[in-house]
Write a structure and sequence with these properties.
single chain, alpha/beta, 10 helices, binds S-adenosylmethionine, binds iron/sulfur cluster
Length: 331
C-alpha cells in the first residue's frame, strides 16, 4: 500500500490538472497576447498514451480527481478517447473539464458519451462587445450555444468561470449572476492573477471578492457563505438569501488558500508543477520517453511534491511571476 502523496507541510495531494494543449482559439488579454504566440511543437506535447500512463501512476499514489484543461482542451483532436481512457483508471473518482465553450456545441454530446459529467465553462460577460474586447474574438454566440447544448445533453454540473478584473467587469457581475440563477449554473468569480503573458497584472487591477460580494448582495440579494463544504476546494461558496442560486469566489489574491492546497499540474509538454506559480518543474516527459519504469516516475512525482512551498507570494514584494503564462501551464 502506498503512503499518501504528502508534502513537507502535511498536505495530501489527490487532485491533478492535466493540460492537453497550449493552443487556444481565442485570446483573453489576461492570459495570452493578441499576436505572436509561440506554441509548442506537436511532438513536444504528450500523447494520450503518455498522459494515461502518468495518470495511472498518479492514481496509484492516491490521486482521485482529474481535470483536463489547456490552452483550450477542445482543440485537442479526439479528446473523448482520452476521456474514456482516464475514466477507466482504477481509483479515479472524478473527471472534469475546463473549456472556453467555443467548441462545446459540436462536442458536448461526444464528451458526455465518453463519460464526462462535469464542466467548467469560462465566460466573463454576456455582452457581445465586451466579450470581443476581452477575448479579441467575436464568439459569444458560440459559447452561449455551447452552454445550451451542454445543458440539453445532461451534464451533472456546469459551472461558469469568470475572471474578475477591476474597472472592467463590474458591469458584468449582476448580469452574470442573474444568468447563473436562471440556468442553474454556479458562477465562480476568479480574482485576476499575475499569470498573463504580457505582464499586465498589478494589484490595482484585481477586483476583490469582498467588493464583488458587496455589489451582488446590494443589487440582487444578500450572499450567505456556505461553511466548510469542501475546505480543500479553491472556491468559497455563497448562496443568495432568497434561495435562488449560488456563487463561488476564487480569491487567490485577497484570501490565498494555499494552506489547503491538494493540487498538482501536468503541463501539455509533460512537466509537473506543484503550484500555479511554481518556478521549478519536474520533467516527466523525459522519463516517459526514455523508458523509465513506473517506480521512477512515481519517485519523480513524490520528489516534486516534497519540494512544494508553503504558498505563493503574490502579496509579497518577493513575488516572482512564473516563467510560463496561464495558457502554457493549464489553469
Ligand atoms: N481555455 C480554457 C478556459 O478558458 O477555461 C481552459 C484554460 S484557462 C487557462 C483556465 C481558466 O483560467 C479560465 O477558465 C480562466 O477563468 C482562468 N484564467 C486565465 N487567466 C487568468 C488570470 N490571469 N487570472 C485568473 N484566472 C485566469
Ligand atoms: Fe484561451 Fe482559456 Fe487563456 Fe482564454 S483563458 S486565452 S480561453 S486558454
Amino acid at each position: 500500500m502506498n503512503t499518501p502523496l504528502a508534502d513537507t507541510f502535511g498536505r495530501v495531494h489527490d487532485n491533478l490538472r492535466i493540460s492537453v494543449t497550449d493552443r487556444c482559439n481565442i485570446r483573453c488579454f489576461y492570459c495570452m497576447p493578441e499576436e505572436g504566440v509561440k506554441f509548442m511543437r506537436r511532438e513536444e506535447i504528450l500523447s494520450f498514451e503518455e498522459i494515461e500512463r502518468f495518470a495511472r501512476i498518479a492514481a496509484g499514489l492516491g490521486v482521485t480527481k482529474l481535470r483536463l484543461t489547456g490552452g483550450e482542451p477542445l482543440l485537442r483532436k479526439d479528446l473523448p478517447i482520452l476521456i474514456r481512457k482516464l475514466s477507466a483508471i482504477p481509483g479515479i473518482q472524478d473527471l472534469a473539464l475546463t473549456t472556453n465553450g467555443v467548441l462545446l456545441g459540436s462536442q458536448a454530446q461526444a464528451l458526455f458519451d465518453a463519460g464526462l459529467r462535469r464542466l467548467n465553462v469560462h465566460l466573463d460577460t454576456l455582452d457581445r462587445e465586451r466579450f470581443k474586447h476581452i477575448t479579441r474574438r467575436d464568439d459569444l454566440g458560440l459559447v452561449l450555444e455551447g452552454l445550451e447544448t451542454a445543458r440539453r445533453v445532461g451534464f451533472e454540473s456546469i459551472k461558469i468561470n469568470a475572471v474578475a478584473v477591476k474597472n472592467l467587469v463590474e458591469p458584468d457581475l449582476v448580469p452574470m449572476a442573474r444568468f447563473g440563477r436562471e440556468f442553474g449554473h454556479e458562477i465562480r468569480f476568479i480574482e485576476f492573477m499575475p499569470l498573463d503573458a504580457q505582464g499586465l497584472w498589478d494589484r490595482t487591477k484585481v477586483l476583490l471578492a469582498d467588493q464583488m460580494i458587496e455589489i451582488l448582495s446590494r443589487e440582487i440579494a444578500p450572499l450567505i457563505e456556505i461553511p466548510d463544504r469542501d475546505p480543500r476546494a479553491p472556491a468559497t461558496d455563497y448562496r443568495f438569501a432568497d434561495g435562488i442560486g449560488e456563487i463561488g469566489f476564487i480569491a487567490s489574491v485577497s484570501r490565498p488558500f494555499c494552506l489547503n492546497c491538494n493540487r498538482l499540474r501536468l503541463t501539455s509538454d509533460g512537466h509537473l508543477r506543484y503550484c500555479l506559480f511554481a518556478i521549478d518543474e519536474t520533467d516527466i516527459k523525459i522519463l516517459l520517453r526514455n523508458g523509465a519504469p513506473d517506480d521512477a516516475i512515481a519517485s519523480a512525482i513524490r520528489g516534486n511534491v516534497r519540494e512544494k512551498w508553503l504558498g505563493h507570494e503574490i502579496n509579497s514584494s518577493r513575488f516572482v511571476p512564473p516563467p510560463r503564462p496561464m495558457y502554457a501551464i493549464g489553469g
